[in-house]
Specification:
The complex is a heterodimer of chains A (115) and B (112). In chain A, strand 7 and strand 8 form a beta hairpin. Helix content of chain A is 0%, strand content 53%. Chain A is built from no helices and 11 strands. Chain A is an all-beta fold and 115 residues long. Chain B is 0% helix and 53% strand. Chain B has no helices and 11 strands. In chain B, strands 2, 4, 5, 6, 9, 10 and 11 form a 7-stranded mixed beta sheet that branches. In chain B, strands 1-3-8-7 form a 4-stranded antiparallel beta sheet, with no helix packed on it. In chain B, a hairpin with a 2-residue loop joins strand 5 and strand 6. The N and C termini of chain B lie far apart (33 Å). The model of chain B has no long low-confidence stretch (mean pLDDT 93). At the A-B interface, strand 5 and strand 10 of A face strand 4, strand 5, strand 9 and strand 10 of B.
Chain lengths: 115, 112
Amino acid sequence: QQQVKQSPQSLIVQKGGISIINCAYENTAFDYFPWYQQFPGKGPALLIAIRPDVSEKKEGRFTISFNKSAKQFSLHIMDSQPGDSATYFCAASVGANTGFQKLVFGTGTRLLVSP
Amino acid sequence: DTGVSQDPRHKITKRGQNVTFRCDPISEHNRLYWYRQTLGQGPEFLTYFQNEAQLEKSRLLSDRFSAERPKGSFSTLEIQRTEQGDSAMYLCASSIQGAGYTFGSGTRLTVV
């Protein structure tokens, strides 16, 4: 019940295209859903996060879509650029209002944006 | 410095040796987390603290692993009698309610 399932494992998108990564969760107690970007040899960097009372959040080229009834959320990267080539992780946590507990991560998606 | 700082960045050790890593969180963050990440995998939770109290430990944290956060500021993660399977990136993160988690750049451990 603590798992977060992520797909696809890898993704190749042409420059200017839309990258879409999907995640699903089981634990309905999760109340914080962030996406992280990670480059080789670096720690994960927060891209964007959403709480379950919102169905969509947009920051620049990055959008999270959240479907509470389906227990799914996705990351959309618009106008994908070669610099977006990295590994992306979805995650989920309990405690957005009370103090964050542990983050549970998905397995990651390796994105390659071809020039 | 406004980020999470980890030291050292890289550590190579011989099997059987003890190693200790340090994490300095963002100063106003009261929670501190340790994760382990192996190549091609997502970070796996090890343990976390609220101030100096260790609130949760993963089953991944065997008897050879110990973490402390004296005085609720920096934290150390010690691995005793290292094994080749301990080779991984060890990540530290900190958080405060309402602000999410911030990760450090990690300590890459190689056990030879």
